[in-house]
Amino acid sequence: MSSRENRITRHPVLEEPEIRKVEFTFNEKPASGVMGEAVSSALFALGVHVFGHHHADESAQGMFCANGQCSQCTLLIDGVPRKSCIVPLEAGMQIESLEGLPELRDLPGPDVRQPLMIDTDVLILGGGPSGMAAAIELGKKGIDTIIVDDKDRLGGKLVLQMHKFFGSVVDCHAGTRGIHIASLLAGEIEELESVDVWLDSIVLGVFSDGTVGIRCTDGYRIVKPEYLLIATGAREKSLPFPGCTLPGAFGAGAFQTLVNRDLVRCSERLFVVGGGNVGLIAAYHALQAGMTVVGLAEALPVCGGYKVHADKIKRLGVPIFTRHTVLAAHGSEKVEAITIAEVDDSFMPLPGTEKSWEVDTVLIAVGLNPVDEFFRKALKFGMKTMMAGDAEEIAEASAAMFSGKIRGLQIAGELGTEGISIPAGLHEKAEVLKSPGGELFPYHPPETREGVFPVLHCMQEIPCNPCMTCCPKDLIGTSGHPIMGLPEFHGECVGCEKCVAVCPGLAVTLVDFRKSTEKPLVTVPFELGEWLLAEGSEVTVTGWEGSVLGKAVIAGWKRAAGFPHTILLKLETPADIACRTAGVMIQYPEDITPLEEPLEVPLPDDAIVCRCERVSAGDIRRHIRSGIRDLNHLKAITRAGFGACGGKTCAVLIERICREEGIPGREITAFTDRPLFAETQLGLFSGSE
Question: FRET pair for 638, CA 20 to 30 Å: which of 68, 90, 222, 276?
Answer without folding.
Answer: 68
